[in-house]
Amino acid sequence: MKISVRADLCCAAQLCTKNAPGIYRLDELGYNASDGDEVPPGQEAEARRGARSCPEGAINLEGE
Q1: In whole angstroms, what is the distance from residue 26 CA to residue 37 CA?
Q2: Could you tell me if 59 and 30 are in contact, meaning their C-beta atoms sit under 8 angstroms apart?
Q3: Looking at CB atoms within 10 Å, which of 17, 29, 51, 59 has the fewest?
Q4: Does the pLDDT value for residue 63 go beyond 80?
Q5: Closest to 14 in 3D by CA, of 34, 35, 30
Q6: pTM for the whole thing?
Q7: What are the backbone dihedrals phi and psi of residue 5, each rounded to the nearest 5 degrees, phi first?
Q8: 5-43 residue pLDDT tens
Q9: Distance between CA 8 and CA 23 in Å, rounded?
Q10: Which residues does residue 32 pair with via DSSP β-bridges, in sequence order?
Q11: 27-46: burial string, b at 16+ Cβ within 10 Å, e else
Q12: CA 35 to chain centre
């Protein structure tokens, strides 16, 4: 499963990292920098939880 982040929608609420700290990472300004990252095996549920928490819907998970 691969993380896809629409940077134009990310508002830096950082709820993704609060709900899935081992999956999502932030840049130096607090925006999601996980675009293109692979979700580690066995952590798909955590990745989904973090994606669902995004208030702007900026995170999509490819390859489900």
Answers
A1: 12
A2: no
A3: 29
A4: yes
A5: 30
A6: 0.92
A7: -120, 125
A8: 999 999 999 999 999 999 999 999 999 999 999 999 999
A9: 20
A10: 26
A11: eeeebbbbeebebeeeeeeb
A12: 8
List Cα–Cα distances, 4 to 25, 31, 32, in angstroms: 13, 13, 10
| Amino acid at position 24, single letter | Y
Domain boundaries, given as residue ranges, for the chain: 2-62
- Residue 20 neighbours by CB under 8 Å, 6+ apart: 43, 46, 47, 49, 50, 51, 53
Residues 6+ apart with CB under 8 A from 46: 19, 20, 22, 23
* Residue written as token pair 């955590």: 46
Place of tokens 């629409």: 6
| Whether 26 contacts 54, CB under 8 Å | no
